[in-house]
């Protein structure tokens, strides 16, 4: 029996370089065990007759092979934002091929996401105060109210272009951040007037959002947060795959692994911060409950989803704050923390969910058409 086919929608970083090829190879390896052939392609690989030049991994030759085929019946979208040009190409592809079955749908940018999440009273309490950048003067008013803020590109990923501004004295401010290339910026201490001049030179636009800062600094001065992965399982149900902590390098305002952050097991980091075992268990229960609540809400707004990576802050009181939602999350954090089972599940679950979706489609096609009375 021929294997089922799963298409992976990707995007070229350069002329012929794909961002997650090692992950796709793992998917191919695990897919083969399940009777699922993984085929990687980009919009550039589709010709005028809707034939696709897909990449299929040959385990014996240990290399990717190009094959021309029809569209796979189901698509796992892993095409991440790589600038407005590639975004428009992906947007046009999704619109043209809306009849394909997708495991998930793109979510909104940071500002629209904030507005969407704020619609739900239960979820709203987990979200830091957020406004769209308008002027430096308005930003300063927001800073004086919250004392600590983050300024983020609404479409940015991986910590690129994020600024952290803190009022550390009566007329003393600290500006830190990362460039668009993730380089750590030199900390800048100044008074209010100097800070406003500095911010004006950065030419911020309404494409940035300004967010209330949550205290994330550990005793050694490094920032931290948590990455929770919730995925659909082989029965089509949401299930938390795992959660782990991330600690940023010295002088960094972000904890992203791509930006030099280190991974630490959830229990280890929580135990370091909270002495009560009951408190830690309550936090873990809250994380699980919130993740399910959020996943179901977002599905109701955006359509079927496959997985979500949630960037979570836990303040000194043990309260949960949602920093960001990633619909195309990495799973590297579980490998780095030695959580072998969680890492394996994180790779396999999209494949198992794809097979479940295909089975539902097959069962529906077998049902006779109902005749209206």
Architecture overview:
This is YheC/YheD family protein. Keywords: ATP-binding, Nucleotide-binding. The protein contains ten helices and 17 strands. The chain has helices spanning 21-34, 84-96, 110-117, 121-124, 136-146, 192-201, 266-273, 277-302, 332-336, 340-366; strands at residues 4-9, 36-41, 52-58, 63-69, 74-77, 101-102, 130-132, 148-153, 163-169, 172-177, 188-190, 208-212, 224-232, 238-247, 262-265, 307-314, 320-326. Strand 5 (74-77), helix 2 (84-96) and strand 6 (101-102) form a beta-alpha-beta unit. The longest helix is centred in the last third of the chain and has 27 residues, at 340-366.
Query: Which architecture of the largest domain would the CATH scheme give at its second level?
Result: 2-Layer Sandwich
Q: What is the number of strand segments?
A: 17
The SSE order reads EHEEEEHEHHEHEEEEHEEEEHHEEHH
Number of DSSP helical runs: 10
Stated plainly, the CATH topology of the largest domain is called D-amino Acid Aminotransferase, Chain A, domain 1
Pfam family, one: ATPgrasp_YheCD
Organism: Paenibacillus hexagrammi
InterPro entries: ATP-grasp, YheC/D
Protein name: YheC/YheD family protein
Summarize, please.
This protein is of the alpha+beta class and 373 residues long. It folds into three domains: 4-102, 3-Layer(aba) Sandwich (Rossmann fold); 110-119 and 219-360, ATP-grasp fold, B domain (D-amino Acid Aminotransferase, Chain A, domain 1, 2-Layer Sandwich); 130-212. Helices cover 34% and strands 27% of the residues.
